[in-house]
Amino acid sequence: MKVRPVPFPEKNGAVPFNASGVVRVGSRHFVFVDNKDPGSLFELTFDPRITTVERIHRRRLAGLGRTALRDPEGLTRADVAGETFLVVASSLCAGNGDRVSDGLVRVRYRRDGDLPAEPMDGFRAWFLARLPQFAAAGRLVPDAGGLNVEGLAWDAGTLLFGLRGPATPGEATVVRVPADVGAARWTTAVLGAPEVVALPLPDPAVPWGIRDLAGAGRAGDLLVLLGRSASDGDAPFRLGTWHPGRGRVELLDVAFHRTAKPEGVTAFTVDGEERLLVVDDAGGYAVL
Fold this sequence. Notes:
The chain has one helix spanning 123-130, and strands spanning 2-3, 6-7, 19-24, 29-34, 40-46, 53-62, 72-80, 83-90, 104-108, 115-119, 148-154, 158-168, 171-178, 195-200, 208-215, 222-228, 238-242, 250-256, 262-270, 273-280, 284-287. By secondary structure, the protein is an all-beta fold. The chain has one domain (2-287): Neuraminidase. The strands form four sheets. An eight-stranded mixed sheet has the order 3-4-5-6-10-9-8-7, with no helix packed on it. The longest helix has 8 residues, at 123-130.
C-alpha cells in the first residue's frame, strides 16, 4: 500500500501543522502535538465514518511556563482510575549553544476548554543520570548523532520512549520507564528504573530511527513508525509491528510517498474494523 497524506483542512495560523504524536480521545476525536507549538494540543474532529477531518480545535495547555516544554514530539494516552491522562514528551535533544529541549508533561484530558497540564521538573537530567550510555549523545545535536526522542507509548504502567537517535544500523532503541501516571504529584519520584530495549530491524544496514510508537491493537504488540535518523539521511519511512520476545520488527505492507513525513500513528477501531491514523509533520494525515 502506497500512502500519500492529504493536507489538513486548516493551518496553524499561516503555516502548516507540524504534527507529531497522535492519540484517540473520543468516538470521532483525536489529539496531536505540534512540535513547533508547545503551548497547546490540537484536537481533530472527523466525519462519522472517520475518514475525513472536519475541523481542528486548539486546546491550550494551562499551567505551563514558557520553557517547561520544548520541541514536543511524543504523545500517549493513559487511562488510570477512571481518568484520562495524556502524556507529552519533548525530544530531549540539544540545540545550538546551551539550549536544550526538556519536558515530560501530564495533561488531564477534558472535553472542553483549556487542558490542565503539569510539567515534570528535571526530567531530562533524570533520564541522562540514570542512562549514562546516552550522556555523550545528550551533548550533541541530533544530526551529529545526538539524543533525539520522538516516540512515546503507554503499556500497562510503563512509558515507552522511542529514540530517533542515536541510531545503530539494524536495530531501534526503546527505553522503558515505569511510571505512576495517576500519582498525586507529577515529579521524578513517580518514575521507576529505566530499561533499554533493542528492537532488531529487518535490514541490518539501514540506520532507521523511531518516529513514533503506539499500541497495535493486539495485546503486547507495538506499532513502530520508522524513518531516517538524521535529516540528511535517505532511509525510507516504514511502518512495522513488534512483540516483545518475538524477534525483529515485522514491516507492514505500507510505504509512504517520497513527499510524506509521517511522525505520528495510532490504532483504533470503527464498527469492529481496525484502522490506523497517521499524521504528518508537513501538515497532513492518512487513515489506513
